[in-house]
Amino acid sequence: MKTILYATDCTKKSVPELKYAYRLSKALKAELHAIHVYDLLPIVSTTVRSRGVLEDNFDKEQQDILQDYCLKYLKKDFKSPIINGHALKSDSISKAILKTATTIDADLVIVGVKNPYSLRGIFTENIANQLMAVLSCPLLVLPEYTLYETWSKIIYATDFDEADIHALKRLADFVKPLNAQIEVVHIPRKNEDYHERKMEWFKAMVGMRIAYSNILFSSKQAEDVESGIQNFIEKDRPEILVMMERQRDRIIDKLLHKDLVKTMGYEISIPLLVFNKKRIKRKLSEQVDGIKKMSLAL
Question: pTM (2 decimals)?
Answer without folding.
Answer: 0.84
